[in-house]
Structure formats: C-alpha cells, structure tokens
From TrEMBL:
This is Protein tyrosine phosphatase. Residues 1-25 form the signal peptide. InterPro entries: Prot-tyrosine_phosphatase-like, Tyr/Ser_Pase_IphP-type, Tyr_Pase_AS. The keyword Transmembrane does not apply. It comes from Levilactobacillus brevis (Lactobacillus brevis).
C-alpha cells in the first residue's frame, strides 16, 4: 500500500467525518444547531486523523425508498489521516474514489494522501477563491451562482452516477459548506426531505464541535437557486445539465427498497 502526499488529477470519491466533543459548555442554542448523531442514519466514521466523516446513507425518501449505506461518504480534509485510517477506509468501507472540492491553493497546502487503487478528482466549487470567513453568506451566494460551482457539482454527480464499485468520498476543508451544499443537491435528487437534509447539514456542527453551519445559510442557497431556476429539480437539469439517464443512474446506484 502506498501512503504519500502526491497530487493527481484523476478519479473521485467521498468521505465521512469523526465525532469531536466541543471544547466549551454547549448552550441551548448550540444544541439546536448540533443534532444527535445516529448509528443507523448518517453513521459517523471514526478515524485517528480525519474529521467530520460520515456515511450519507440511511435516510428515507419521499418515494418510500432508502439511501444505501456504504456508497457515498463525506468529510473534512484528509491530510491528517494515518496509515491506519487509510487501511480502515480501504478494507472496512471499500473506498474507491475521492472528489476534492477545494481550491488548488488549499490542496497544495494540505494535500490528500494518495491511496493505491483509489481514484482522485479535483472539482473546486469556488474556482480559485478561498478567502471566505466561516459562515460567510457571500460564499453561499457564490456556490449558488458561480460557473465553477456548477461545474464542480456536475463533476461530482457524474462520478456518483458512474461509480459501480465501492464507496465514493467527497470533501472540502471543514466538510461543511461546499460539502454540505453538494450533499443537499444529491439528497434532493434522491428525494430526501428538506428536514432531513438540514439535519444532515447541521451534523457537521456536532462532529466538529462548532456552530458555523446555520439553517439560514442553507436556506439562502435554496432560495437563490429557486429564484434563478424555479426549483432544485430544474437547477439539476438546466443549471448542472444532468441528463435524465445520469439522474436515473444516481438513483439506481444509491436507492434501495426500505424495510417495512
């Protein structure tokens, strides 16, 4: 097994995050922004070096199906992963692809490990800009409108549509904003309720021990997409230009019959 920090430009995959205990006494407001983590839904993946990693599976959809576990993971940056973490992802989670949503500058400062047998794809949501503050409304505006964001989301979703083996991990720096909006788009395609999408988005607060992710930010992302395209469904079809066949492939790969 090779474990080194060399940047490549092929492939893709999705990762998930480890739970972190807040370093302060949580207030009632904090607890509203830090939902409890379930082992059946959004299962956390605990690593020695990685953060905010979890499985996107487990949620029921409006059609009565369930999102498959073990197919798509999400996380924060991966540069602190240990050799044990890498082995864990390969053996226990069958990781085959990673999609990195960060800018080239961020990747050069904190490159992902190159993992033998795992394909890698960079798909920067924010183009070349990386100087946003935490919980920055401007970042969410750009993620809703920038051409780079549409290219990035499209690339990620195509990889998910085409992935027939193992798990795909996608991530940004904190695994919260870029990763969170990408997850929201994916969940919308699959038919997960907005309530569950918001809950999953806020779980990054829980896992990182912060309150940066806020419902108002995600709602503003939805609002701007709706203003420009009319709905998330139209955004996926006309903004991201996913074909009916690609949308069907995503659903086929990630949805299964829910147990009664």
């Amino acid at each position: 097994m090779r474990f080194q920090t060399v940047l490549t430009t092929l492939g893709c995959a999705a990762i998930m995050a480890t739970a972190v205990t807040p370093a302060y006494a949580a207030t009632a407001k904090d607890l509203q922004l830090q939902p409890a983590i379930s082992q059946k839904v959004n299962r956390p993946i605990h690593l020695e070096g990685g953060e905010n990693m979890r499985d996107l599976g487990g949620y029921r959809t409006k059609s009565g199906q369930r999102v498959k576990m073990g197919k798509v993971l999400r996380s924060a940056s991966l540069e602190k992963m240990t050799a044990t973490d890498v082995l864990n992802l390969q053996v226990n989670h069958q990781l085959t692809e990673i999609v990195d949503l960060r800018t080239t500058e961020q990747i050069m400062k904190k490159p992902d490990p190159v993992i033998e047998g795992v394909k890698y794809l960079q798909a920067s949501v924010l183009g070349t800009r990386s100087n946003y503050d935490d919980d920055d409304q401007g970042m969410y505006d750009d993620m809703a409108h920038k051409a780079a964001a549409k290219r990035s989301y499209r690339s990620l979703l195509i990889q998910i549509a085409e992935n027939k083996r193992g798990a795909l991990l996608f991530h940004c720096s904190h695994g919260m904003d870029r990763t969170g909006t990408a997850a929201a788009i994916l969940y919308s395609i699959l038919g997960v309720s907005k309530r569950d999408i918001q809950r999953d988005y806020l779980l990054s607060n829980t896992q990182l021990g912060v309150t940066w992710a806020k419902p108002a930010l995600l709602n503003s992302f939805y609002k701007q997409i709706n203003q420009q395209y009319g709905s998330m469904d139209k955004y996926v079809k006309h903004g991201l230009k996913l074909s009916p066949a690609q949308i069907k492939a995503i659903k086929t790969n990630l949805l299964t019959k829910a147990p009664h």
